[in-house]
């Protein structure tokens, strides 16, 4: 399965969000708590966990004022830290389990915190901005509790919480997976993108096109692309809407049945719930939207997806990181093709055009091109194992573009446990070195596993290659030659040692 299975008990996982600028005076300590999971823990327990976290942050800053605390390993727990915004911390406390499956990389756990925060900001804006709008913190908590709860639901299978384990070491959360196009298909896609960008008349739109759960095209920045892509794969693609679990998709789909109570903490902690306050999501003031709820999207008769998450007949909006621009989210689906169109909300607000006009333009001007693109991509699509390379199990990451490509999960699953454990250890070594240097540097590491398999890593100029080779007869020279051959044939020689 690739995930470490844990019970949903209060000791297995604790996740909190707190603000170091709040609750510093005696009697006001609860003010700093913005989110806590499990939500039914007593305030004394919540304050104990957050107090310990705050103490660890303060202590480590004495030795490294510029570098944030990232992880503290205790005898029974791993404490994973992420400073999501200045002085706003997210901390995950994970119980160490003697089961072999419960071996994880700290970076993989930290990426969960980064992902949920990034998605939250895309829908609601920054946590700090919400706190400034409504200083009691009630508005912020009323958004954080349901949002993170819905996100954690995706990590449950039955009643078991599934955290990334060593079996997922050849995957990279927080990146997009691209579809490679033939030249004729690429030309058709480029033509379609031009039409989509002009569907709002003189106002330029952004667009993203997906085929199954793979990215075909985007006009967004890398960071915004990751956020919109992640949400699309979680909730908007055909696989997501049909509630099917794609065996080859990078992002796993959680159970459609909520395993976590969605109730918030007590009214005392939530503070003000004044309906006149802005909700932070750009529309429907006073309404707390829950964009990560399951089974809330469906395909309308015109091909556009519809939802009541934002309210009846309301159009969803999101916030783009790069421009801090709020845009309307329109999603059109044809067979396995999903088109996401992002229309600046100021154009609609100013009365220059309306959403129905934009939808009509898409149907009127882009329908024929959409059919043609879907036909050409489907014809050239190699299926779930399209990116399998015989004899290799690999992961390629472009950290600058936030793109990754990996061996299909079904192929990675054929690797021996010893190989995966060695690969996990290799990635931990790379993570530690990257964290220590805080700058890009070329790196080459090779480890021989207990079963004589070779696991190898090469890093150069923002590109990373991780590989597992299980031919026990291979020497280090043979394994190095195999990596060289792979680099020349599939990576334009980027990872070659020539």
TrEMBL record:
Q: Where is the CCZ1/INTU/HSP4 first Longin domain?
A: 16-125
Gene Ontology cellular component annotations, sorted alphabetically: Mon1-Ccz1 complex
Q: What is this protein called?
A: CCZ1/INTU/HSP4 first Longin domain-containing protein
One of its GO biological process terms is: vesicle-mediated transport
Q: Which family does it belong to?
A: Belongs to the CCZ1 family.
Extract the ranges annotated as region (Disordered). 259-285
Pfam families from the UniProt entry: Intu_longin_1
Q: Which InterPro entries match?
A: Ccz1 (IPR013176), CCZ1/INTU/HSP4_longin_1 (IPR043987)
Compositional bias (Low complexity) spans?
A: 259-280
